[in-house]
């Protein structure tokens, strides 16, 4: 059975790049343009991994992670931050919120797939 990933990014271009990499790796992909959109799309859906940007309108990635971790069905779902933010303080905020991993943009598709594979059982 194919794994399902939720991609959250306000940049259509970056979402398309991630979708392309993941579909090549045989993932089913759900797209969201911000944290609130992602929460709406998660209602009734089951995902194996979530990949989120940090800086987005409506609901940023850190707030999304905190909100997602408060939901019992998402407590153990890996959440990978894929962002331009590289400062240690921001990474620490993500970790404190419950992020599982952190990749800085720009990214290589092979590296993303390797990290995603490492995070999944």
From TrEMBL:
InterPro entries reported in the protein's UniProt record: Bact_response_regulator (IPR050595), CheY-like_superfamily (IPR011006), Sig_transdc_resp-reg_receiver (IPR001789)
Record field: transmembrane: none
Record-listed 4-aspartylphosphate modification sites: 53
SUPFAM superfamilies attached to this UniProt entry: CheY-like
Domain of life: Bacteria
Domain Response regulatory residue range list: 4-120
Keyword annotations of the record: Phosphoprotein
PANTHER family assigned: CHEMOTAXIS TWO-COMPONENT RESPONSE REGULATOR (PTHR44591:SF25), STRESS RESPONSE REGULATOR PROTEIN 1 (PTHR44591)
Name used for this protein in its record: Response regulator
């Amino acid at each position: 059975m194919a794994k399902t990933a939720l991609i959250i990014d306000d940049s259509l271009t970056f979402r398309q790049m991630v979708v392309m990499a993941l579909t090549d790796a045989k993932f089913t992909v759900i797209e969201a343009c911000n944290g609130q959109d992602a929460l709406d799309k998660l209602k009734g859906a089951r995902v194996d991994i979530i990949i989120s940007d940090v800086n987005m309108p409506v609901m940023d990635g850190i707030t999304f992670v905190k909100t997602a971790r408060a939901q019992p069905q998402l407590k153990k779902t890996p959440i990978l931050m894929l962002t331009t933010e590289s400062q240690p303080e921001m990474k620490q905020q993500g970790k404190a919120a419950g992020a599982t991993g952190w990749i800085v943009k720009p990214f290589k598709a092979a590296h993303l797939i390797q990290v995603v594979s490492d995070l999944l059982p």
